[in-house]
Structure formats: structure tokens, C-alpha cells
UniProtKB/TrEMBL annotation:
Its cofactor is FAD. This is FAD dependent oxidoreductase domain-containing protein. PANTHER family: D-AMINO ACID OXIDASE, FAD DEPENDENT OXIDOREDUCTASE SUPERFAMILY (AFU_ORTHOLOGUE AFUA_5G13940). PROSITE patterns: DAO (PS00677). GO terms for cellular component: cytoplasm.
């Protein structure tokens, strides 16, 4: 005879972090667990210091460390020329498939189909060798077309467009959180001192996922500062990125659902400054707004007119949780130190260090976390396989 549901032995998987990585991992774990038959219910508990809901310009403020609130964000593939980039390309493909599904079935979620344009002043080998075929195979995105010389601004030597996705980051994160809660997910606000502390949050924690972004003192982790401007431009219909010879970047990311347009942005590894600075804002706007006439079919005729039509809603600084070698994705097992109890092992799956690509690789990382998690849950929860 089985006990009523609320008296049954229960198990908990803790996910640390309510950024894009923690949210997608929590949802993916939740849906995989619900598809399987377990001898005891396993619930997913999301634990984080900071939570979604941020509107640039409104008073609620998040720390610069909560990268997911400050991302543009667009899907912008990078040619897969190294082992790390090949791995990220596979994750990106997985995320692209999920975004395509969401745009169709949950069109309010904060993801929008958008044309993407790339301008390169000094393309490396990877970009120069890229073809329509290799691009579409690597990314799962369609619509690739090289732009002709007459279509591109001065100084650009390689340019192409493709069909991609833009994400209203805070809105999308809120959407994922609402979905998690609706499906029975549990949450807890907490500033953890170590991932091992997570094992003490409930009696029955069997696994912890560390999606803490920058993590807890990994010497390979470092912040990459990003300053951007949230503007009220409303006629931008494409996301445009320009990589300049001097290593600087200029991009426009339309943020749908009344989010204005992001004019960016800096990439400053190891820079810990949390405040936006005015010279950077001026530089971003003057470079970004010259991209704009190419990016839309709206009423502005030139950059000067665009500048007159543009109001700064907020200056934004975020820290991309970067890690040498990319995302750490592995299981760590350690004895848990609990003085008055039987010795026990704790298992953590690490999933932090997504750097500047957290959104575009999210669902790929989450699938790998689930692949790592399921065999670990099997002995404890006696998963009997799919129903
Ligand atoms: C300006 C800018 C532009 C960007 N543009 C893009 C883009 O176009 N496309 C893209 O894919 N990515 C982009 N990114 C990168 C993207 O924002 C990050 O890769 C992503 O947000 C990382 O997500 P995360 O979940 O790993 O970490 P975070 O979003 O930092 O979340 C970490 C979570 O862990 C919690 N946490 C951390 N430590 C603790 C602790 N000790 N106890 C409890 N909780 C804790 C935090 O409170 C938070 O909930 C951009 C970033 C910036 C700054
Ligand atoms: C999470 O990852 C960080 C990497 O910075 C690591 O040092 C730490 O041990 C992990 N923390 C938790 C809570 O798992
Ligand atoms: C943005 O602000 C500028 C300057 O205040 C204004 O002229 C313009 O109409 C605004 N645009 C929109 C779409 O509201």
C-alpha cells in the first residue's frame, strides 16, 4: 500500500542560480523527471541570491553580477574553429531549435525571430572560410546571404545576414520562472557560501546543480564587463553587429515587448568597474547609431536624424561570467562533512562560466546537465525508465 503523496519519502534536486543557465537546467530537469517513473517523487528546488524581473530605467536594481538581466541578447553564431567553439556550436544548435519551438507555441515568451547582420572589418580565417552551407549546418539557422560591397558601410570587408533570434532577457527569464513554478517547482532566496551548503537546505537533497554564473572562487573564472545603452529607438528591425579592426564592438539589438533597442557594447575582460561611464556611452551611441540606418526601414534618413530620435533610457553594466576554457560542465563528488551524522557523499554538477553566450547556448548546456544527472538519480530514485 502506498502512503498519501505528502507523506511519501521525497527527494530534492537543488539548482543554484536563477540566471538563464539555472532556469533552463531547472526546467529541463523538471520535464525529464516528470516523464519518468520514480519510486519516490523528486522535486526541483531553485535557490538563488537574485531573481528575474528587471526593467532598465525602473527602480528595481540587480547587481552587475547577475549577468542574465543585462544581456542584449541575440543569437550570434561564431565559426566553430576550436574544440571549445565546436562544443558551443552544438549547444547553440540545440538552443536554436528550442527558440524556434517557443516562438511558435509561446509567442509571448520574450524571444523574437529577427534578421541578423554581421559587419567585419578584419575577419579571421574562420569567418573568411564560412559558407552558406557551413553556417547553416553549424547553427541550424537559415537565410544566410553574403552582402555585396554596395550594401555595406565603409571599412567593412566581409558582411552577411541570416535569420536569427533576439531575446528580451529579463522578460524571457521571468517567463521561464513562471513556467517552472506553474509546473510545481520550488524556490528559495539564499546567498550560499558554498555549493556544499546547498545539501543542508533540505533533509533529502540528492543532487546539486551549480549554475551560479561566476561561481564560488574558481581561479579560472573572471568577469568580462559589458556596458550598453538601452535606448528608445523603435524602428530597429534587425540585430546588427560590427567588429572593428581595433577589437571594439558595436551592436544594435532590438528588444521586443516595449524594451527599446540595446546599443552596445563593450567586452572588457577582468574589468571590475560596476558603474557606467559617460565617455563609453558617447562612443557606443556615435558608433551604434551609424549602424542604424542600415538596420531598419523606419523614418530616419541618416545617423544625425537617428541621434535626434534617440533617447537614453538607461546605461547598463553587466559582468559576463567568463571562464578560461569555457563552461565547466562536470560532476564533482565529495564527502559531505556533517559532524553528527553518518558519512555521506555529495554530488554537484557544475554548469557555470557561460561568458558572453549564456542565452544562445542555454538549452544545449541544460540538456547536457540532464544527461549527467539522470544516471546519478537512477540508483537513489530507482528510475524505471520512460513511461
Ligand atoms: C552586456 C551583455 C551582453 C550580453 N549579450 C549576450 C547575447 O547577446 N547573447 C548571449 O547568449 N549572452 C549574452 N550575454 C551573456 C549572458 O548574459 C550570460 O552568459 C548569462 O547571463 C550567464 O547566465 P548564468 O545563469 O550562468 O549566470 P547569471 O545570470 O549571473 O546568474 C547567476 C545566478 O546564480 C545566483 N548566485 C550566484 N552566486 C550565488 C550564491 N553564492 N548563492 C546563491 N545564489 C547565487 C545569482 O543570484 C543568479 O541567480 C551578455 C552579457 C552582457 C553583460
Ligand atoms: C560552483 O562553481 C564554482 C566555480 O566558480 C566552484 O568554485 C564552486 O565550488 C561551485 N559552487 C557550488 C555551490 O557548487
Ligand atoms: C525617443 O526620444 C526622442 C527624444 O526625446 C523622441 O524624439 C522620440 O520620438 C522618441 N521615440 C519614441 C519611439 O518614442
Amino acid at each position: 500500500m502506498s502512503l498519501p503523496r505528502d507523506q511519501q519519502a521525497h527527494s530534492t534536486v537543488v539548482v543554484i542560480g536563477a540566471g538563464i543557465i539555472g532556469l533552463t537546467c531547472a526546467l529541463q530537469l523538471q520535464s525529464e523527471l516528470s516523464r519518468r517513473k520514480t519510486t519516490r517523487p523528486i522535486s526541483v528546488l531553485l535557490v538563488a541570491r537574485e531573481w528575474p524581473s528587471s526593467i532598465p530605467g525602473a527602480p528595481a536594481r540587480h547587481s552587475t553580477d547577475y549577468a542574465s538581466m543585462w544581456a542584449g541578447a541575440h543569437v550570434r553564431p561564431i565559426p566553430a574553429t576550436t574544440p571549445q567553439l565546436r562544443c558551443e556550436a552544438a549547444w547553440l544548435r540545440r538552443a536554436v531549435a528550442e527558440f524556434a519551438r517557443q516562438v511558435d507555441v509561446e509567442p509571448w515568451c520574450g524571444v523574437t525571430r529577427t534578421p541578423g547582420v554581421e559587419y567585419l572589418e578584419a575577419p579571421d580565417q574562420g569567418y573568411r572560410q564560412q559558407t552558406k552551407d557551413s553556417f547553416e549546418r553549424e547553427t541550424g539557422l537559415g537565410g544566410y546571404r553574403k552582402l555585396g560591397a554596395a550594401e555595406v558601410p565603409e571599412g567593412v570587408v566581409l558582411a552577411y545576414e541570416y535569420d536569427t533570434f533576439c531575446i528580451n532577457s529579463p522578460a524571457y527569464c521571468e517567463h521561464l520562472l513562471r513556467k517552472f513554478l506553474l509546473q510545481g517547482g520550488k524556490t528559495l532566496q539564499r546567498d550560499l557560501k558554498s555549493e556544499w551548503e546547498a545539501f543542508t537546505l533540505r533533509e533529502d537533497v540528492i543532487l546539486v546543480v551549480n549554475a551560479s554564473g561566476a561561481g564560488f572562487g574558481d581561479p579560472k573564472s573572471f568577469p568580462t564587463r559589458g556596458q550598453t545603452v538601452v535606448s528608445n529607438l523603435s524602428h530597429v528591425t534587425k540585430t546588427v553587429t560590427r567588429q572593428n579592426k581595433d577589437g571594439s564592438w558595436s551592436f544594435l539589438i532590438p528588444r521586443f515587448l516595449n524594451g527599446g533597442t540595446i546599443v552596445g557594447g563593450t567586452k572588457e575582460p577582468g574589468d571590475w568597474r560596476t558603474e557606467p561611464d559617460v565617455p563609453t556611452r558617447e562612443r557606443l551611441l556615435s558608433a551604434g547609431l551609424t549602424l542604424e540606418p542600415y538596420a531598419h526601414d523606419g523614418p530616419a534618413r541618416d545617423a544625425a536624424e537617428t541621434a535626434r530620435n534617440c533617447k537614453v533610457i538607461a546605461d547598463v553594466v553587466g559582468r559576463r561570467p567568463t571562464r578560461e576554457g569555457g563552461v565547466r560542465l562536470e560532476v564533482e563528488e565529495r564527502p559531505l562533512v556533517r559532524l553528527d551524522q553518518e558519512p555521506a557523499k555529495g554530488r554537484v554538477i557544475h554548469a557555470y562560466g557561460a561568458g558572453g553566450r549564456g542565452y544562445e547556448i542555454s538549452w544545449g548546456v541544460a540538456s547536457e546537465v540532464v544527461d549527467l544527472a539522470m544516471p546519478l538519480l537512477a540508483p537513489e530514485a530507482q528510475i524505471k525508465g520512460k513511461l
